Amino acid sequence: MSKIKNICCIGAGYVGGPTMAVIAAKCPDIKVTIVDLNAARIAAWNDENLDNLPVYEPGLDKIVAQARGRNLFFSTEVEKAIDEAEMIFISVNTPTKTYGVGKGMAADLKYIELCARQIASVAKTDKIVVEKSTLPVRTAEAIRSILDNTGNGVKFQILSNPEFLAEGTAVEDLLNPDRVLIGGETTEGGEKAMQALVEVYANWIPAERILTTNVWSSELSKLTANAFLAQRVSSINAMSELCEKTGADVNEVAKAIGMDSRIGPKFLKASVGFGGSCFQKDILNLVYIAKSYGLNEVADYWEQVIIMNDHQKRRFAANIVKTLYNTVSGKKIAFLGWAFKKDTNDTRESAAIYVADDLLNEQANVAVYDPKVEAGHMYADLDYLETRSAAENAKGLTVFNDPYEALQGAHAIAVLTEWDEFKGYDWQRIYDNMNKPAFVFDGRNLLDADKLREIGFFFNAIGK
Ligand code: NAD
Ligand code: UGA
Question: Which residue puts its alpha carbon closest to atom 34 of ligand 2?
């Protein structure tokens, strides 16, 4: 396989966009074309005003500005891009199935299959197809079966190259990853294809951080990594509830155990629960795969991570109701943050959605401020739950562009996202303009408890 000159990526989302922008920025000799069926999304990626990119990530605007129009292109012409490329990344969404066998558990692979069929029907020259989406172990087998049965004589190599970036730090993670994982077949063609992809990454990543494995190990490693990370969050969250009952402080416990080099300090921040598009979806998928092999104990073990996470969100909302004298009906509860973590505009599976849902059930007036999330997304998140009508959601939830307006006259504040700016607010002014007694429920252990108590707030934080 000669050097790659043309890359196509199908799917211009949170992964496809940033990943390919970094490849283009670091490999000026490779033409990178990102395609998507969603014309509005492509138009936003092409918007001259870099504030309008569809994905907010610190540093992404600069990377896009560097490469766009030079060797980075965003287009809706899927077939043309497939035809031109020697290497095609599939980076489409793989949500949890909402219908049929495996509903609510298995990954829905319809978008992946569509891509494979489209590649099969368009390709006239040999191609390397790279799985960038997170997929169930052995998906490459299905993709191979579709690609190999087109009868047009084109040879395909299938690689697994899962993405480990986290939102909010995507650019930094892509520029400086802990490792890049590439799985391929142990045939001569497979080895050559892996080498071609290794050479792309070698433009900026040290050789010792580029790991090659067989396809199945690579596919399963991605699900395993997310399961282990989510498990750590559920583990510390389980301890947070015990801390609240016993007078222990979850931050002190996390620090004490994190100093053990075998445990390590990262991913031990107790919270209102993990969100994001992937942890829950990938663990449910893992549970489904384990069950499909009859491994019920393995499935139950991992399912508990999700059960704990759901419990954490629900008990946060319940604690607000209980503390506010068992009723929030007609009371203004202000949310600081709606995104599932700071430095992203992504709200998928954000804990805020579920806490809002519970409080709306109790007839609270929820007032939200988030520095990056648009109001339309918040309403869409709530409507998607189908707990109540869109009109009722619009009545119960109000979105503010100014945090001080959102907090004005509130009975309680719930911190749902750990945006840095919240720490620098004028908390005395906020207190002065709230209903008394004024409560803060810090779901992120973000704010200075002593300072807020001194001002007069009743302060409540996860795990304390
Ligand atoms: P996304 O929904 O943001 O983007 C997927 C895009 O694919 C959408 O814009 C959609 O229009 C497009 N698409 C779907 N089918 C298509 C088709 N047939 N042709 C052209 N375009 C098509 O999803 P995402 O967050 O980028 O995730 C993509 C994959 O990467 C998932 O498997 C996810 O699990 C995985 N992943 C996500 C993250 C993350 O941080 N979001 C990190 C690592 C891995
Ligand atoms: C996660 C993984 O970290 C990435 O490696 C992976 O590529 C990605 O999923 C994916 O496959 O989509 P992401 O969901 O973007 O990335 O963000 P994380 O930083 O992992 O946070 C996930 C959730 O856990 C957030 O809601 C965050 O607030 C929460 N969290 C994280 C905690 O509550 N405590 C912690 O200590 C860490």
Answer: 269
Report the percentage of the chain scoring pLDDT > 70: 100
CA nearest ligand 1 atom 4, residue: 13
The rounded Å distance from CA 15 to ligand 1 centre is 6
Q: Are strands 210-214 and 332-336 parallel, antiparallel or unpaired?
A: unpaired
Tell me the catalytic residues. Answer: 278
Tokens of 210: 């580029």
Ligand 1: centre distance to CA 12 (Å): 7
The tokens of 30 are what?
């490779």
**What gap in Å lies between CA 9 and CA 208, rounded to an integer?**
26
Ligand nearest to the CA of 169: 2
Residue matched to tokens 């909302």: 317
**1 Cβ contact list (under 8 Å, min separation 6):** 86, 128, 192, 193, 195, 196
Nearest residue (by CA) to ligand 1, atom 2, is: 93
**pLDDT at residue 1 in the model:** 55
Cross-strand partners of 75: 35
For 185-204, how does the pLDDT look when each residue is reduced to its tens digit (9 = 90+)? 999 999 999 999 999 999 99
Q: Is 354 in the pocket of ligand 2 (CB under 6 A)?
A: no
What gap in Å lies between CA 355 and CA 205, rounded to an integer?
Answer: 41
- Ligand 2 atom with the smallest distance to the CA of 170 is 15
How far does residue 184's CA lie from ligand 2's centre (Å)? Answer: 27
Ligand nearest to the CA of 18: 1
Query: What parts of the chain have a pLDDT lower than 70?
Result: 1-2
The reply to whether ligand 2 has any atom less than 6 angstroms from the CB of 233 is yes
**225 alpha carbon – ligand 1 mean position (Å):** 18
Q: What is the DSSP string of 310-379?
A: HHHHHHHHHHHHHHTTT--TT-EEEEE--SSSTT----TT-HHHHHHHHHHHTT-EEEEE-SS--HHHHH
Ligand 2: does its nearest atom lie under 6 Å from the Cβ of 162?
Answer: no
Helix (H, G, I), strand (E, B) or coil at 127: strand
The ligand with the least distance to the CA atom of 165 is 2
Contact 185, 157 (CB under 8 A): yes
DSSP code of 52? Answer: G
In three-state secondary structure terms, 89 is strand
For residue 277, give the nearest of 398, 23, 107 by alpha carbon. 107
pLDDT of residue 110: 96
